[in-house]
Amino acid sequence: MSLDPEVVRKDFPIFETRMRGKRLVYLDSANTSQKPRQVIERIVEFYEHENANIHRAVYELAERSTAAYEGARAKCAHFIAAPSPRSIVFTRGTTESINLVRYSWARANVREGDEVLVTEMEHHSNLVPWQLLTQESGATLRHLPVTDDGMLRMDLLGDYITDKTKLVCVGLMSNVLGTINPVRQLADAIHAMGGLILVDAAQAAPHMPVDVSELDADFLAFSSHKMCGPTGAGVLYGRERLLEEMPPFHGGGEMIREVFADHSTWNEIPHKFEAGTMNIAQAVGLGAAVDYLHSLGMDSVRAHEMELTAYALERLNAVGAEVHGPSDVDQRGGAISFNVADVHPHDLATIVDQEGVCIRAGHHCAQPLMRRLGVPATARASLYIYNTREDVDVLMGALEQAKGWFA
Ligand code: PLP
């Protein structure tokens, strides 16, 4: 089933908004996606008909809210082909999911002399927690280099994954380069050494089928707000065996089994990691976003974005932009970073905004990668299910204008 972005657009009320009287051309979905009516209405329905705190009360309304929340968990498990909802922990988003692993698993397992491997293309969310961990534990943080065309230096794997490596932390799809990384190969290499792999799927989960068994991921994180869901919700997938062994992250209500004056015992997984009142409506909204993406089909989502990415790359090359990352759409997603000679990315973003076009400019929370690319910042257009060739054409017209201003 192929995806028609003009039909998809109609599900998103925001596209009824005009920007300076012009069509809204939203090309910043890698930052946060727009929300379809189906998700917005599900959140309203929850607050109007099901709202109560979860897991705590015996009355019918609380049973409804608990069913909605736990139903969303089951949907998320299915979305990434996780073996059981027990392996799905709700968090505030990818950043919190990664920090959960840092505080819980890594603090208990990573020691002085051990190594944690990240890559040169990680988002700060999958870098800074590991800097903090290694500084605190005396372990060493290493960075797998990136080639000039934005691929991981897999030829160096033997040097970077050794019996000292306890954890590999890698993005499945880069938010800057669009690169889809060979995560399964990294998983096989680290598992052969007895270590674990954490996959940052913040950019992959919204855009392509993700299967934790195929990836052989030990942990995998993603955010609701980048995949048509609300802000304030996200997922940490963890192998059940690992989650069972891990100490809690936050302490408080719900994560306990029994509390004594001086100690406590812990609830079963995943509740052990969900302290206090969670973002219930947001989790329910994430469940609706999963339903929405399933109704389109993740294969169709990926196929549409490959086709549009190929078109955008061709047009960007034609206007003389310097595009970062792989040129083969089999190896990349639709987050496209580029520079246009002599025009600062912030100026570009400001000028195209005059035409109703939203793109991001800056370091994209990947400052070490900017240094590797030798640029202070890039402009980034990122594509999603509701983008059309017309959107790309409007961007190109605006870029031509920007070039004209600085000629
Ligand atoms: N990882 C990647 C690759 C991202 O692109 C982002 C957000 O841009 C994050 C992590 C952080 O996600 P969040 O801000 O939803 O926690």
Descriptive key words:
407 residues, 17 strands, Aspartate Aminotransferase, domain 1, Aspartate Aminotransferase, domain 2, globular, 16% strand, alpha/beta, binds pyridoxal-5'-phosphate, four-stranded antiparallel β-sheet
How does this structure look, described?
The structure is a single chain. The longest helix has 21 residues, at 298-318. The protein has a 7-stranded mixed β-sheet with strand order 4-10-9-8-7-5-6, sandwiched between helices. It has a 4-stranded antiparallel β-sheet with strand order 13-14-17-16, with helices on one face. It is an alpha/beta fold and 407 residues long. The protein has helices spanning 5-9, 37-49, 60-79, 94-109, 128-137, 157-160, 183-192, 212-215, 240-245, 280-296, 298-318, 345-353, 367-373, 389-406; strands spanning 18-19, 22-23, 25-26, 88-91, 115-119, 140-144, 165-171, 196-200, 219-223, 234-238, 256-259, 264-266, 322-323, 335-339, 357-358, 360-362, 378-382. The mean pLDDT is 97. The protein is 39% helix and 16% strand. Residues 93-95, 123, 125-126, 171, 175, 200, 202-203, 223, 365 line the site of pyridoxal-5'-phosphate (PLP).
Instruction: Identify low-pLDDT runs.
Output: none
User: Overall mean pLDDT score?
Assistant: 97
Bound molecules: pyridoxal-5'-phosphate
Assign the CATH topology of the domain at 5-27 and 297-405.
Aspartate Aminotransferase, domain 1
Total number of strands: 17
The main sheet orders its strands as 4-10-9-8-7-5-6
